[in-house]
Amino acid sequence: MRTWSAWLGVPAIFAILLTVVNVSCKPKSPKESGAQNPPAGQLPAQAKDAVKTDPNKVAVIVEGVKITEGDVQALIKPQLDMIIAQAKQLPPTMVEEYKKQLREQGLEQLIRSALLDKKVKDANLVVTDEEIVTKIREIVSNSPTLLPLDEVKKRLEQYGQDFEKVKQEVRVGLLRNRFMEMQWQGKTDVTDDEAKKFYEQNPKQFEMPEQVRASHILIKFDGADSGADPNAAKAAAKAKIEGLLKQIKEGADFAELAKTNSACPSAPGGGDLGFFPRGKTTPAFEKVAFELKVGQISDVVETEYGYHIIKVTDHQDAHAVSFEQAKADIISQLSQEKQAKFVEDYINSLKANADIVFPVGT
């Protein structure tokens, strides 16, 4: 199950404060460590011990606020569950190393969050429910066209997420971001000279391959995976897509038909898939998309996803992006890098001056 922080597509500040628990610090491979695999079916004792941790035991006290082992375990549970599930394939020493890393990272994240949240609280900042809901809709929609709120809630439920809990997590994230924006104001700006220097030193980043922008209508082979006759399911899907193609040829609006009929997540945006180069989509779809001229509509195209009608709305030949075209994106990227460093330095300064107590034996 995906965690909400994985959904968040977090900006620089969240990347530091909400994604610390990340098994990117690789422990040594079995070959490097010299450890032996445990007998098949035997769960290493270290993994079992992770479940037995006393949740009420105090892990750290930050400015008088207690953070318990239960808090840490709740934060790292998704990653810990994966480790336990894979324990039979991992050497016991590696399981222990993973577990130790996760706990350290989770504890560090909770300390950082506690220190920042105290500053945020003291600042008396406010975000409205409207701002929170809009941010959730932006995240879940993942397109310029925001999904209706009912659809957003439905999608969250599909990922096992409670809407009210998500609202609270997004509220915290927005408050933290707003507070940090106040701190770094005027300190993370990027000059034109800095942007130009980056552009000149990274020419390959601005070489663009041939791309097309396409919209499509997708009709899946409904019923093919539910025990129904797959041939009948395909025939029904084929009949439906051919009917839609007939309507388009007779003058029906492609985008409106996509909104009401397409089974692709792009449907709310009229089927728009944006620009994509060769090699980024399924071959049968790509072949047709790159053969069509701008404004042309394909016949029915079959892929492993179902039947498609494709409309090409734009085409770009391979080219180098000019500095003027890239300038805004470069400034945004460099600004985010400066902001990330600013947040890191700011949190470290809070830690350096904070009253952080680790109980004896932790």
Task: Write a structural description.
This protein is 53% helix and 12% strand. With 362 residues, it is of the alpha+beta class. It folds into three domains: 4-122, no CATH class; 129-189 and 331-356, no CATH class; 210-317, Roll (Chitinase A, domain 3), CATH 3.10.50. A four-stranded antiparallel β-sheet has the order 5-4-7-6, with helices on both faces. The longest helix is centred in the N-terminal third of the chain and has 31 residues, at 92-122. The chain is globular.
List the helices and strands and how they pair.
Blueprint: H1 4-7, H2 12-17, H3 30-33, H4 45-52, E1 58-62, E2 65-68, H5 69-85, H6 92-122, H7 129-141, H8 149-158, H9 163-184, H10 192-201, E3 207-208, E4 211-219, H11 230-249, H12 254-261, E5 272-277, H13 283-291, E6 301-303, E7 306-316, E8 319-320, H14 323-352, E9 356-357
Antiparallel strand pairs: 1-2, 1-9, 3-8, 4-5, 4-7, 6-7
Helix pairs in contact: 4-6, 5-6, 6-9, 6-14, 7-8, 7-9, 10-14
Summed up:
The chain has 14 helices and 9 strands. It has 362 residues and is α+β, with helices and mostly antiparallel strands. The chain is globular and about 75 Å long.
